[in-house]
Amino acid sequence: MSTTNRRDGQAEQQEQRVAAAAAAAAGNRLDPWFHNYAGRAHNLRVSEVRSLFAVANRPEVVSLAGGMPNIEDLPLGKLGAMVDDIVANSGRRALQYGGGQGEEELREQIVEVMRYEHLHAHPDDIVTTTGSQQALDLVTGLFVEPGDVVVAEAPSYVGALGVFRSYQADIVHVPMDDNGLIPEALEETLARLRREGRRVKLLYTVVNFQNPKGVTLSLERRPRIVEIAKRYGVLILEDNPYSLLGFDGDPMPSLKSFDSDGVVYLGSFSKTFAPGLRVGWAYAPLAIREKLVLAAESAILSPSVINQMIVTRYLTEFDWYQQVKEFRTMYRGRRDALTSALAEHLPNLSWTVPSGGFFSWLSLPPGLDAKAMLPRAVTNRVAYTSGTAFFADGQGGDHIRLSFCFPTEERIKEGVRRLAEVVRAESELVEMFGTASNIPSQHGRETSTTDVPGPDSV
User: Which uninterrupted H or E stretch holds 339?
Assistant: First the structure.
């Protein structure tokens, strides 16, 4: 080999060593770009409920975990023909880009839907989004900077907690009781945060049939919550996907009906029609609405036109409100199946009895850890969501969320029977060995809370 070729080879090896050293400095073995991410990227976490779906959706497992609506009761054949007609006769419009604020005809219909919640809006007040989850993300992005505080009820919807974390917010919980968010606790929390000099940007709440607890904010408390937030200059983010699914009739007035300028209202067709279409909306004050449109255009250019047209045709051509009433009856029956099975198999425990929506909140016996118990529950062919998914500060191990929306009544009863077997077995082990987190497994090692991915929630 010539001297020149040898020098070239040595130079190439040196370049490779430098490149390898640079890559090592920039990242790690698993991800060479680790140190290049924005700070908010490191706040992204695996959703406990989503990660459980692969296990919970196996046919032999009764899933009381995910909040998946029952769409089998929809007139799927007629809906299929309707979609065919949209593509065949309106395809040039349906398959094209749209406006960032959403289709005007759908926004007009959303206004009519919201009248059931005592809201009187104009179509221009509405921004159509890719599910209310996108609206939640857009509003948070508009207001929250790293270190800002978001006040959220405890427990709280896990999808919202994930959004707040991603924007590097500090999440501060306020307790609830059977009548929803406690006004006195909210005022005490906001006063303390003000004394500490911390900036509170949002109050997040699900007022009707709350996810995960299933409770509803009482009518008496609603104007009080609005007044407290207004006095402290905190914008309310009212997430209301379950409002029309009350078992006792139409919903109570929304928070936004008490203060149009102090509340951003989020709605969705995911629970009353089809979650796969991903059509939701935000009803916001004028200045916020304008920024929401700009933020939405920056994120996705426009929401799906064809999906909006499907919702529009459904609302126009089908008796959608009668379908909602049928959903109410069906979900009430499933709620009753859950609570009666709990009373039969776990009579010494306590749980919420929701007056609508999808969820009940079950208290575990002392010493049991919901997340540690989950792998054994899945082994016994039943899945639930650990209460730890719904807190930002590690609470919730003494509770589980049970979802009754998807399984049939018979499957719900069987799932509770299987769950009761696991709870009794865990309680016996706690009596023998102490706390659940220190219980030896069948293989002679301590129970790991990561044996099976924990559940997060929709």
Answer: helix 320-345
Note whether 335 and 227 are same-domain residues.
no
- Six token digits for residue 299: 């994120």
Tell me: do 255 and 358 sit in the same domain: no
Q: Helix %, strand %, coil % for the chain, to 5?
A: 50, 15, 35
DSSP three-state, residue 103: coil
Tell me how far apart the terminal alpha carbons of the chain are, to the nearest angstrom: 66
| Pair (258, 300) in one structural domain | yes
Q: How far apart (Å, rounded) are the C-alpha atoms in residues 160 and 458?
A: 10
Three state DSSP letters for 17-79: HHHHHHHHHHCCCCCCCHHHCCHHHHHCCCCHHHHHHHHHCCCCCEECCCCCCCCCCCCHHHH
Cα 184 to Cα 177: distance, rounded to the nearest angstrom: 12
Which residue range(s) make up the domain with 425? 50-73+322-457
CATH number of the domain that residue 183 is part of? 3.40.640.10
Q: Taking the CA of residue 75 as centre, how many other CA atoms within 13 Å lie in the half-sphere pointing to its CB?
A: 14
Q: Report CA-CA distances (Å) from 174 to 152, 277, 391, 393.
A: 6, 33, 11, 12
CA distance 103 to 25: 49
Instruction: State whether 31 and 65 are in the same domain.
Output: no
Would residue 388 count as lying in a domain? yes
Contact 97, 302 (CB under 8 A): yes
pTM: 0.86
Spatial separation of the C-alpha atoms in residues 229 and 233, rounded to whole Å: 6
Q: How many domains does one find in the chain?
A: 3
**CA distance linking residue 403 with residue 361, whole number of Å:** 9
CATH number at residue 409: 3.90.1150.10
237 in the same domain as 96: yes
Shared domain check, 63 and 22: no
Tokens representing residue 276 in the block: 């796969």
| pLDDT, tens digit, 9 for 90 and up, residues 47-93 | 555 556 566 567 889 999 988 999 988 999 999 999 999 999 999 99
Spatial separation of the C-alpha atoms in residues 22 and 4, rounded to whole Å: 27
Residue 386 C-alpha from the chain's centroid:
14
Q: Above 70 in pLDDT, residue 16? A: no
Mean pLDDT, rounded, for 107-122: 95
pLDDT in tens, 123-178: 999 999 999 999 999 999 999 999 999 999 999 999 999 999 999 999 999 999 99
